[in-house]
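Lecture notes, unit on binding sites. The following record was shown on slide 14. It pairs a sequence with nicotinamide-adenine-dinucleotide.
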Amino acid sequence: MAMLSGKKILVCGVANERSIAWGIAEALHREGAELAFTYVNEAIEKRVRPLAESLNCKTVLPCDVQSDADLDNLFSELESRWGTLDGIVHSLAFAEREDLGRPFSKTSREGFRLALDVSAYSLIAMAGRAEALMKNGGSILTMTYLGSQRVVSNYNIMGVAKAALESSVRYLAADLGAKHIRVNAISAGPIKTLAASGIPHFRELLASFAERAPLKRNVSQEDVAQASLFYLSPMSNGISGEITYVDCGFNILGV
Ligand code: NAD
């Protein structure tokens, strides 16, 4: 029997077929999960709807995570369609390109606010609203990157946002654990996606990563999807508050 049959999972962050969230959605679908997708604006909606339909999914809802009204509507819509929720894939982030490219000490106040709001606060906002729907417990999974722990050129404000996100994973895990809601993160190695193309010199990062990583290759969408399946399935029932590296071993390296 499929590992996730009967499970209802919300997937946030599909922009196109290269999105990390899309790889995860395909894996969840293969394992029998029923999915709902969100989109941030009309341009993304045009890409997400056909992808969702290719998995026979009809639940495609608007949600700009900067809007409390959008978040409220999303979860009340899920409540009326599904009644319960078993999992969330939070695979989204945003920072202004200028704030990634400029020297870190010149990060703007608005750039800081925006990056932290979209990339970190959104996880707290979703988890808080999901709690009432996760009547049988649940699993919430987010995506982070090594730039939260180490200095990675051009990652700048997004590194600070990911540090806040990872800390939020731990506080949420502690807060929601008594309700059998688990919260974890995957720290993925670099993958060529729409969001990644906003990071200056990303191509060079990919090349040096494949050369240096212990597994001598780049991470694939499928690598992240497989690990995500583990976190959204009962196979990880005893794990919460963890940050797991899916990065071909890159994070262990010193000089
Ligand atoms: P992507 O561009 O495919 O996905 C990013 C998503 O964020 C898009 O769907 C976009 O619509 C959404 N988004 C942006 N602002 C939003 C808002 N205000 N409200 C709702 N949604 C919003 O890129 P991706 O690489 O698949 O990114 C997914 C996650 O993985 C991000 O958190 C990213 O930081 C993380 N990550 C990516 C890499 C990589 O190298 N690609 C590595 C580690 C972690």
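Take-home: The longest strand covers residues 181-188.
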